[in-house]
Specification:
This is folate gamma-glutamyl hydrolase. One of its GO terms (molecular function) is gamma-glutamyl-peptidase activity. Belongs to the peptidase C26 family. This protein is of the alpha/beta class. The chain has two domains: 39 residues, no CATH class; 291 residues, Rossmann fold. The chain is built from eleven helices and 16 strands. The strands form four sheets. It has an eight-stranded mixed β-sheet, with helices on both faces. It has a four-stranded antiparallel β-sheet with strand order 2-3-16-15. A two-stranded antiparallel sheet has the order 7-11. The radius of gyration is 22 Å and the shape is globular. The termini are far apart. The relative contact order is 0.17.
């Protein structure tokens, strides 16, 4: 074969390969927009961000802790166990304040790589509170992902319930049920959990601990059950990966993920095994418990590494970080949280560049 023939053949192959690539891309777009497929476009998702920064949403100050700091009159807080859990997985934290307008959340989410919705105890019907902020974040994150900008969310306990309630439309009657669990429990995985985003690469030893040991910490009065997903037509969007049973044997959803977006939720508290120490709570602090619970934030932070958002400069970044606040030791005050960060009206950080 002559050099000309060789070059001609290579050129034909190149054109065929290029045409095939175009066909694949067009097919993917068709599935995405016409079929609601689980395709997420992000051309930079294979380039990982080794300096991820995650926003943690604050929530309304509890009446109990407000009584302990009456002069400061703090309006919101974040339990430091969530911050430590994220930092232990190799990310830094920016506090997200409640009571802000949508523009605040839009601007902040352009700079950070994901949002964590914590557990806690607050109402979802308070104006300009945790739920309203969560709804802004959820809607903005959907828009980012729809535009090919990978942006994960992870909700724990109350935060997980909020994700589902927002997805349900936040009706006057909340899409959750009463559910009492104050126990350490194993996970009852669904049959196809290994094909899920959250658990497809989980090491077998961690799976075995989660399946057979009482290592997931539950502390909730509400929960999401399968019927909550069915009643609001959420089964096409949300995938259940595990259940547990409450103190009265009610089966509730223990872990879930969105089929299309990188949104995840767990009803239990992975952070408590390593970072909460109240004796009366009897949280599991064994090596196995800490190791198994460590997986969830490691997974989420790895998801956040796929986001390429960043601050304009190191100086701007520093002004936002939670290091600007000093955690208070609240465990000796009778609080369920060992330490807490408190926000507004004192200690307000300027969010101007």
């Amino acid at each position: 074969m002559s050099c000309y023939d060789c070059c001609f053949s290579l050129n034909i192959w190149y054109q065929l390969i290029t045409m095939k690539g175009v066909i694949i891309i067009l097919a993917a777009y068709f599935l995405y927009y016409c079929k609601g497929a689980t395709v997420t476009f992000n051309v930079k998702s294979n380039v990982l961000n080794d300096r991820p920064i995650i926003g943690v949403l604050s929530q309304e100050q509890s009446f109990y802790l407000h009584s302990k700091y009456p002069d400061e009159n703090y309006t919101s807080y974040i339990a430091s166990s969530y911050v430590k859990d994220i930092e232990s997985a190799g990310a830094r934290v920016v506090p997200i304040l409640i009571g802000k307008d949508r523009g605040y959340y839009e601007e902040l989410m352009k700079k950070i790589n994901g949002v964590f919705l914590p557990g806690g105890a607050t109402f979802f019907n308070q104006s300009n509170g945790f739920a309203d902020a969560g709804q802004h974040i959820y809607e903005i994150a959907k828009k980012l992902n729809d535009n090919g900008d990978y942006f994960p969310i992870f909700g724990t306990c109350l935060g997980f319930e909020l994700l589902i309630i927002i997805a349900s439309g936040r009706g006057e009657i909340e899409n959750r049920i009463r559910c009492y669990s104050h126990s350490n429990l194993p996970l009852n995985f669904t049959q196809d959990y290994r094909s899920s985003k959250m658990f497809k690469e989980t090491p077998l030893d961690i799976i075995n601990i989660l399946k057979t040991k009482d290592v997931t910490v539950n502390a909730h009065q509400f929960c999401i059950v399968d019927e909550n997903l069915k009643s609001h037509n959420l089964t096409n969007d949300w995938r259940v990966t595990a259940h547990s049973n409450d103190d009265y044997n009610v089966e509730f959803i223990a872990s879930v993920e969105h089929r299309r977006y990188p949104f995840y939720g767990v009803q239990f508290h992975p952070e408590k095994s390593a970072f909460e120490w109240k004796l009366s709570k009897k949280y599991p602090h064994s090596y196995e418990a800490v190791k198994a619970n460590r997986y969830f934030m490691d997974f989420f932070v790895q998801e956040c590494r796929k986001s390429q958002h960043s601050f304009a400069s190191a100086a701007e970044e520093n002004r936002y970080l939670i290091y600007n606040y000093e955690p208070r030791f609240t465990g000796d005050l009778g609080s369920a949280y060992h330490q807490c960060y408190f926000f507004e009206p004192k200690g307000t950080v300027s969010y101007k560049n």
